[in-house]
Amino acid sequence: MTDLEKKLREHNLLVNQNKKGTYVVVQPTPGCVIKFKKSKLLFSHEDDLKCFINLAHCLEVPGPDVDVDEEEMIKMMRIDTECFKLPLSLGELDCVKDKQGENSLKFDVVINSDFYHKRFSQSEFHRQLTIAAFINQIEQEHQVRINRSSQVILKNKKVYGVLSAHMIPKSMRKEPKKPQIIDLMDIQRPFDINPHENVQIWAEQGIQLKIRILVPGGKVTSKDLRLEANDDHIILLQKGGKRIADFFVPVDLDVDRLKARIVEPPSEEKKDIQGTIVELTSRCVFPD
Fold first, then answer.
1. What residue spans define the domains of the chain?
2. 133 or 18: which carries more pLDDT confidence?
3. How far is residue 245's CA from residue 280's CA, in Å, rounded to a whole number?
4. What residues does 234 pair with on adjacent strands?
5. Which has the minimum average pLDDT: 191-195, 236-240, 271-275?
6. Which end of the chain, N or C, is more open, meaning fewer C-beta atoms within 10 Å of its C-beta?
7. 257-273 pLDDT, tens per residue?
8. What is the mean pLDDT of residues 148-152?
């Protein structure tokens, strides 16, 4: 173990001592890697070091309370410069090697999946808001000063080193409002709360939940799609980040046994359906 690694380990122990409360352990989805050419440990006499940020996302971290487009956000910030607050999960300070084999710093940062795809990936303005948010938290929590002007988003790289599982404070999670009680034995119709015209949800035998999502346009394959899910939230994305569906389901799902497949439409509906049908199945989870 190098002197730097020893210092970082001792530092992380001190930081973790101050963390209290209950946590949920999640494995976030890789997003992108942001490299900063200059950063400084305020608790050490080390020279300037490179710093790599694994920016990842998950559904368990909530999105910001203010979720508006760039133009509207600029208007709001002219009135209140602190109106934008981004919830995020910050990992431990880690030591990695750069291409030249030199010591560098590394953090894992996790934000909300919706915000990552809808705002961060699409808007340079929101990218800089996000970067400013996690740099501020890094400086406050880990005493690391990062030169923001030296940033570079690495192409074709989603993770630098290892992306660790994250402990998300339960207090951070927002519990979605559940819809009214629904008769799960009614298998004649989908639920009345479909959030999209291209989504159908129904239950079979009161225990098996089925969801059909229509991907409009030409035929697609499973390689063109990405599914993100937790116990009551489904997001289906097409290659390039296009959002096909994003909705809450009225019961909890057994995510570990969630299955997805592409199916043919019923023969009587083939002529009317333009696109590909993705079918999801999962057992319903009921409270003890």
1. 3-172, 199-285
2. 133
3. 13
4. 229, 247
5. 191-195
6. C
7. 899 999 887 776 677 77
8. 90
CA 105 to chain centre: 23
pTM over 0.70: no
84, two tokens: 């934008």
Contacts within 8 Å (CB) and 24+ apart, 183-189:
184/251, 184/284
CATH classification of 199-285, choosing from 1.10.1130.10, 2.160.20.10, 2.60.40.1740, 2.60.40.790? 2.60.40.790
Cβ contacts of residue 105 below 8 Å, gap of 6+? 39, 41, 49, 50, 51, 52, 93, 94, 95, 96, 144
DSSP-assigned beta bridge partners for residue 19: none
Residue among 81, 102, 88, 95 nearest 141 (CA): 88
**Residue 51's pLDDT band (cuts 50, 70, 90):** very high
Which residues sit opposite 96 in a β-bridge?
A: 104
